[in-house]
Amino acid sequence: MRRKTRKPREDGTMGPPDTVTDATEGKVEYQGRKATIKINQKTCVGANMCVISCPADIFGSSPKSHLVKENLYKCLLHACMKCRDNCPTDSVVIRFEELF
User: Fold this and answer.
1) Which pTM was predicted?
2) Could you state, in order of their start, the residue ranges of all structural domains in the chain?
3) Using H for helix, E for strand and C for coil, what is the string for the chain?
4) Residue 39, beta-bridge partner list
5) C-beta of residue 58 within 8 angstroms of C-beta of residue 72
6) Which end of the chain is more exposed for a tag (fewer CB within 10 A), N or C?
7) What are the C-alpha distances in Å from 64 to residues 36, 75, 76?
């Protein structure tokens, strides 16, 4: 799913809309650790606790939660994990890649 958002410019006026890509799965990396974050759409009830608790704004909702691909680079991963910990249905799954 794609939607348009508008970002404020430095002078405070609104800039042209940017395209935002929604997804249910995405790859993230933080401090050398890599993982895949996935939202199980079958169990997600749209409580939006991941959206509310995420300090990096990698989640959106409409009506169920999804990942905003353009923001995945901001994820704090193992330093945070509030999205997973606050989901009432355990719909946010984080799988870390093995370090070998």
Assistant:
1) 0.74
2) 19-96
3) CEEEEEEECCCCCEEEEEEEEEECEEEEEECCEEEEEEECCCCCCCCCHHHHHCCCCCEEECCCEEEEHHHHHHCCHHHCCHHHHHCCCCCEEEEECCCC
4) 92
5) yes
6) C
7) 19, 20, 22
CATH class of the region 19-96: alpha beta
pLDDT at 76 over 80: yes
Distances in Å between the alpha carbon of 51 and those of 9, 56, 58, 99? 24, 9, 8, 29
Which of 37, 30, 32, 94 is CA-nearest to residue 68? Answer: 37
